[in-house]
Amino acid sequence: MASVEVAAEHERILREIESTDPNCIGPTLRSVYDGQEHGLFMEKLEGRIRNHDREIEKMCNHHFQGFVDSITELLKVRGEAQKLKVKKGDRFLTLPKLPPLQTLNTMDELRQCRLQQRNIATTVDKLTHCLPGEQLPQGGGEYYPALRTLDQLEHSCLPQAGAYLFCTIMAENIPRLRAHIRDVSMSDLKDFLESIRKHSDKIGEKAMKQVRPRHPDKLDRGRYFCIAGLGAHDLVDFSPVYRCLHIYTVLGARDTFENYYRNQRRKQARLVLQPHSNMHETLEGYRRYFNQIVGFFVVEDHVLHTTRGLVNRAYVEELWELSLSKTIAALRTHSSYCTDPDLLLDLKNLIVLFADTLQGYGFPVNQLFDMLLEMRDQYGEILLKKWNTSFRQILDLDNYSPIPVATEEDYRRVMGQFPFQDPELEKTAFPKKLPFSAFVPKVYCQIKEFIYACLKFSEDLHRSSTEIDDMIRKSTNLLLTRTLSHCLQYAIKKKNVGLAELVQIIINTTHLEQSCHFLEEFISNITNVPPGTINATKLYGTSTFKDARHTAEEEIYTNLNQKIDQFLQLADYDWMVAQGGGTASDYLSDLIAFLCSTFTVFTHLPGKVAQTACMSACKHLSTSLLQLLLESDVRQVSMGALHQFNTDVKECERFARAGPVPGFQGDTLLLAFIDLRQLLDLFTQWDWSTYLADYGRPTCKYLRVNPHTALALLEKMKDTSRKNNMFAQFRKNERDKQKLIDTVVKQLRNLIATHQS
């Protein structure tokens, strides 16, 4: 490929040497000596010389017969001339013999002939001075020689010719001929400008294809470099520019030409920088836009380096600065419509290629990379939306059951997706179950895929490995704390989530929390930044999964309480019953059975979650039972109903004493029912004297009994005693009991009043 390119370059140089005026051949010769294959070019030049020698020989051979014919004709002319000379001599010999009048006529003819001969010789001589060997242009390459001819005619030949009419006519036509040459060269320039306007995208495409990645596996600065290949001069014939510039310079109108060229190129720049309205729809639209801009500035760069001042560095930099601002504005506008992360990533790579290509020509491109950092934020938001959908699908489709593994292959497959180690589980025989459900390895893999996606955009932004590492960690933190956290919260709080699902979510988030340090190592490995680097951003995965777990725990407590409330709604106490039964109520037995089965599942929960849930459930049950006893709809409570209620509470205490979940010390769980127990003991044992005497002391037997609560319940029993005993006034013991209740009520009221004051 290199040899083909070298041969093409040498051929171009030879064409320019053959067609360019010697005074303008400097850039061409410079390209010869700048090349690395100088010896090969000299061989090519000698070969071209030999070809021209053969052409000359062919031309001579072609015209040889004509040359022979001309010699033959010349010999004939010589013969005729000899005859004419003899005739002339004879005429001179016969002159004396002629009559005088005829002699005069003959002498007059001779004088006229000699006068004509002298005039012809003079004309030939003058015309010879007016023909310096050059012709007016027949083709583009002869413009300058034609101008030189006109200059020689005007300043050298015509003055020597004398004041003849034809000299005057020629002198008057010289300005017109110069204007004609100028106009023809300008026409060629306009054709050139139109050509490069149409083909600037092709020029830019060729230039951008010469930029290739240097080290695809590294994140070092300057990852792209420009390889040797075809230049703008290989794709475009710049000779119309050079000729027109030289002609206008010779004609003293260089400033006019420079202004015209620059104004035309500015107009073309405005057209190039105007993107199509649908550019954002496809990558190809962006590619065409970039190709045109690159092609435009590649041409300007070539003109800058091959002409002396037609365009200068200040002009090109001013034009680039304007173009850069318009390009960035267009990219910001059109890229804002993009919602496809893959398209935005491809656009980023194209912008990097665009920037590196122009940077190779010396144009500053830092603003483009600053814009890419802005685009990276947009890319991150699009990724978060995409991953939000992925996480939702994973959580919605999960069965929230431990993953069954039937074979070693299944076990290793899951271990390849998620870093889990359990020596005890590995010792067990197949089939067995992993503690977490399928969403754990799926979520973990999705987090890694997100990190990879962030890395792809962060590459080639001319940033250090540390900066890239920081960008990836910050984006991953957004994924964890915002996207994944919201998805987990949604999965936990959506309707119809059962206790089993909540328990599995707690187990799953615990394992994901334990995997966070593996994610830290994963990022460090792909960015080559050690995890212990100072000021390195830490992942917030631990707090994300902790928060989700705490939410799930709260939902478990709430769910349990709701289930308890549903059972309590089935309670149907006969508050007026004379004597309580000896067995617990049916609703309470069902409730205890439900709690036992539920807490069996809770044994898989980590830490003290099961203990907290059990204690929370018992406290809620105790509080709800007390509220059931004291609610305003229950106006009367008999001692028999109170005994039945006491039996149900004892059933609850048996449940607590049995230790439904391990980890409680002694009778800790029984403390949840202590308020009820002391209240019921006070009423069933009718131990008011002890309560009233010890109230307020730390060692009081009924320390947990609130006097307001006791008074409210006593009022319900007081009304019962009055209305259920029609003949109580005839039985002394009933009357005494009523008086006793009234006395206790009065003492409780006094007690309350005393402590309130």
UniProtKB/TrEMBL annotation:
Residues 44-208 form the Exocyst complex component EXOC6/Sec15 N-terminal domain. Residues 367-716 form the Exocyst complex subunit EXOC6/Sec15 C-terminal domain. GO terms for biological process: Golgi to plasma membrane transport; intracellular protein transport; vesicle tethering involved in exocytosis. The keyword Nucleus does not apply. InterPro entries: EXOC6/Sec15, EXOC6/Sec15_C, EXOC6/Sec15_C_dom1, EXOC6_Sec15_N, EXOC6PINT-1/Sec15/Tip20_C_dom2. It holds the Pfam family EXOC6_Sec15_N. Keywords: Exocytosis, Transport. GO terms for cellular component: exocyst; plasma membrane. It comes from the Eukaryota. The keyword Transport applies. Belongs to the SEC15 family. Component of the exocyst complex involved in the docking of exocytic vesicles with fusion sites on the plasma membrane. This is Exocyst complex component.
